[in-house]
Amino acid sequence: MNLTTKQIPDFVTKLLSLGPKFSLPYDIKDFPWLDLLSDIENFIMSHDSLNNDDKNGLRATLCNIIYGFYKNFKTNSSDIFHRYLLYIFKKTRNYLKNNPDIYVVNADKGNKTVLIDRVEYEQKMMDLLSDSVTYKPLKSDPTIKIQVESNKLVKHLETCLLITDSEGKKLRKYNSIPPKIYGLVKVHKVGYPLRPVVSCCNAPTYNISKFLCAMLGKIRPLFSYSIKNSVDLISRIGTIPDIPEGYVLISVDVKSLFTNIPQDLVIRLLHENWPVFKNFIDIPLDIIVTIVNFVFKNSYFQYNRKFYAQVRGSAMGNPASPILAELIMNNLIKFVLLSLDFFIPFIFVYVDDIIMAVPRDKIEIVLRIFNSFHCDLQFTHEIEENGRIPFLDVWIIREGGHLKTDLYSKPIASHRTLHFSSLHTTSQKIAIIKSIRHKILGMSHESFHTKNFIEQATLLIQNGYPRSLVSRIFHTSTPMVTPSCPPDSDGADKKYNKLIYIPGLSQRLIKVMRNSSSIIVSYYNKTVRKLFSQLKDRDPDYRQSGLVYRVNCKDCTGTYIGQTRQYFGTRIKQHQSDCMKQSNTTALAQHAMSEGHQFDFDDAKILTRENNWFKRNFKEMLFIKRHPNSINARSDIGSLNIVYSNLIKEIKL
C-alpha cells in the first residue's frame, strides 16, 4: 500500500508485494558461511552419543557436500528465476537506499506492506508521544539504574526462598538495552494513525516481566470467559443453548486496552481475588504486588535517541501485558454479569474483544455498565447485520436460535500468503495448503465448505500455487486430524537443531543429519524483510553485546580477534586496562607488552553478532583462522577441526 507522495517503480512494488517472509536466493557475496558452519558444528557437538570418530566422519561428509555445492554454485550461480530475483532485489535495495525518505513498514492488520514518507511517519510518532497523559519525556537513559533495581528484586526473591539460585541466575539481567518504540500503520483507520509497539527484548525489566506473566498465568484456569483462539471459540459455541427470540449478537471492544491498563485496578483485583488466587500462585501477595508496581513504574522506551516514560498503562510488547489485560477483562465480565438483571446466553473474551448475545432493547444498558467499570476503560460496540457478526477470523451466524460459523477475512486483508515461488521448502508450502484445508473443515459449517474451498483455492492460485497441487490436497479423503504429542511420547526427548536454509544444499545436508534423536528446523535470513526500514533506534556499538570483534594494531599489520557477551564498550575498556597494567591475560595485551605496540581501540570493529555461546566461539575461531595477520594464540583455535580447512579458504568475511 503506497502512502508516499512519490511514484514508486513497478519493480519495487512487485517485490514488496510478495511479503516480508518471501525467501530470496544467495549470491557469492552474501553466501551465509558463518551461520551454515556454526549450525553444523553445533549440531554435531550437541550429540553426546557420537564418539569422536563418528563426529569427524559426519563433519567430513557434510563438508564434502558443502564444498561440492559451493564450487558448482560459483560457476553455475543459479537458474534464470533465481537470477531474476537477485536482480530485482538489488534494484529495489538500491532504490530504497537512494530514497531514504521512503519507509517500508508493516500494517497493523491485514498482512499488508506499507510505503510511507519518513517525515509523515515521524510526525505520527511524535503525535503519539505528545500525549502527556500517557507518556512523559525523561532527562536521561534509566537502563542501568533499572537493571540494578531489577537484580535487587531477584536477589530478594532468592533470599525469601521463593526461587532457586539457578532460577535467579536466569532472571538476572546484564547488558540490558533500552526498549524501543515503533509504530504499525492502521490502514483501516481514517488518517492512517500508528499503533505503538514497544520492543522489550533485552530490556532491564524483560525477565522479571516474564516471571510475573508465568506466576499470574497459573490463574488462567479461573478465567472461564477467556478463549484461546478461533478453534476454542467454535468448540464453545457448540455448547451454547438456543439464543432466545429478541436477542442479537454484539461485539464489544476496549479502546487501546494495553495503554489504558490501570495500575490501581490491577492491584485492587489481586487483593480482592487473592483468597482464590493463592491456591494457584506459590508467591506471597505482597511480592506479586511489588513486582507489578516495579513493572509499571519502570515502563519506558527510546525513540529518536530520546527517552520516555509510559506513565499510564502497560506497553504492547511487555511480556506481562497480556496476562494483566486478561485479569482485568475477566473481572470486567463478572462485574457486568452481576450488574445485569436479565439472561445472557453466552459471553466470551479474547484479549480486548468481547462477543455476546443480549436483548436488542438492552444494548444501551449493557454498554453503560461496561463503561462504568473503570474510568480509563471505555468501550465501542458493533451489532450483528443480517444475523451475522465477525469475531476473530470467523463469521458467527445466527439462524433462529442456533449459531454456526464461517470463515471471515477483514475487508483490508491482503489475501497474501507465502508465495509458492519463495525459496522455502516444498514441505512448508504443502503444510500451508493443508492448514487452510484444516481451517475450512474445522472452522466453518459444512454448508459453507464448497464455497470456502473454491475461494481459498483461488487465493492460493493467485499466490502462485499449482492448481493441481491445491486440488489434490483439498480433495484428499484423509480425515482431518489435530496433531498431538503426548507428554510421554518420543518427541519430548528429541533435540531441535537449527540449520539455515540454502536451496539445493540444505535438503542434502538434512538427509545426512537426520537421525532418531534430532529434528532439524530450517530458518531463513535473506527475505524481503531485509528491505524493510529500521524503525527502532539502533543501539550504539559500545552498547552491543554477544559479538565477535576485531582490534587492529597501530604499529604493525597484526589484528586481534575476540568475542564477548559483555557490552562491547566494557570489553574494549578491559583491553585498554590490560595494556596499561601490562597484563598478559589476552594475546592482545601480550602483543602490546612484548612488542611495545599500541592498538587502535577507537576503531575497533564488530564482525558479527551471535548470542549463542557455542556458536559465537566457533565463529571467532573461523575469523581467526581466516585472517592472515591474526596475533591470537594458537590455543584460541585449538578446538577448530581440521576438516573445515578447505571451506575456510572459500569463506568471504
Descriptive key words:
three-stranded antiparallel beta sheet; four-stranded antiparallel beta sheet; 653 residues; single chain; alpha+beta
Beta-strand content:
15-25%
User: How many distinct helices?
Assistant: 21
Q: Give the biggest sheet.
A: 4 strands, antiparallel
Strand order of the largest sheet: 9-10-6-11
Overall body shape = globular
**Gap between N and C termini:** 37 Å
Number of DSSP-assigned strands: 19
Q: What class do helices, strands and sheet pairing give?
A: alpha+beta
Average pLDDT level? 91
Radius of gyration of CA atoms, rounded to a whole number: 28 Å
- Pick out the low-confidence regions: 482-490
Helix content: 40-55%
Quick structural summary:
The chain is an alpha+beta fold.
Can you characterise this structure?
The structure is a single chain. The strands form 7 sheets. Strands 9-10-6-11 form a 4-stranded antiparallel sheet, covered by helices on one side. It has a 3-stranded antiparallel sheet with strand order 3-8-7, with no helix packed on it. It is globular, with a radius of gyration of 28 Å. Strand 9 and strand 10 (353-359) form a beta hairpin. The chain contains 21 helices and 19 strands. The model is unreliable at 482-490 (pLDDT under 50). It is α+β, with helices and mostly antiparallel strands and 653 residues long. The protein starts with 9 loop residues before the first helix and ends with a helix.
